[in-house]
Automatic annotation (TrEMBL):
Span of domain GtrA/DPMS transmembrane: 18-131
UniProt superkingdom: Bacteria
Cell compartment(s), UniProt: Membrane
Organism: Flavobacterium crocinum
Protein name: GtrA family protein
Pfam family membership, one: GtrA_DPMS_TM
Keywords associated with the record: Membrane, Transmembrane, Transmembrane helix
Cellular-component GO terms for this entry: membrane
Keyword Methyltransferase annotated: no
Family annotation (InterPro entries): GtrA_DPMS_TM (IPR007267)
Topology relative to the membrane: Multi-pass membrane protein
């Protein structure tokens, strides 16, 4: 059974992912179409910007880990950075494969790739590894 707080956490995480993802996607298209960067480089740059937005929202609203201890913040930032590197790599590779092998426009390929990466890679790692709390602090799961 799902607990109400777990459902709300998931929904808040989706809002955070949407805002970070929207920033990421719009910036990717802007860098590719206006500044003529290859979409792989655009995904790298826009992914970092979107990740900063996503991390901030996740930390202070979704998972409410407003810990004042620098070591905790540094640990979360390091773990989040690893997730972001994996995410950007998967998004770049997936978009490239869909574009080169299946001739799908990079904008559409990116949306397809994002849906798999977001739910199958980002969310589980962010929830259960980056912002994991011990059960005494967060008994909702």
């Amino acid at each position: 059974m799902f607990r109400k707080e777990a459902v709300f956490t998931f929904l808040r995480a989706q809002v955070s992912a949407f805002l970070g993802g929207l920033t990421d996607y719009v910036l990717m298209v802007l860098l590719t179409e206006v500044f003529k960067l290859h979409f792989s480089f655009s995904i790298l740059i826009s992914g970092i910007v979107g990740a900063i937005i996503n991390f901030s929202i996740n930390r202070f609203w979704v998972f409410k880990n407003q810990c004042s201890y620098n070591s905790r913040v540094n640990s979360q930032l390091f773990k989040f950075a690893l997730v972001v590197l994996g995410s950007i790599s998967l998004k770049s590779f997936g978009t490239l494969v869909l574009q080169k092998v299946f001739q799908i426009d990079y904008r559409i390929g990116r949306l397809i790739t994002d849906s798999f990466v977001s739910y199958g890679f980002n969310y589980p790692l962010i929830k259960y590894w980056v912002f994991r709390t011990n059960k005494k602090q967060d008994p909702v799961d």
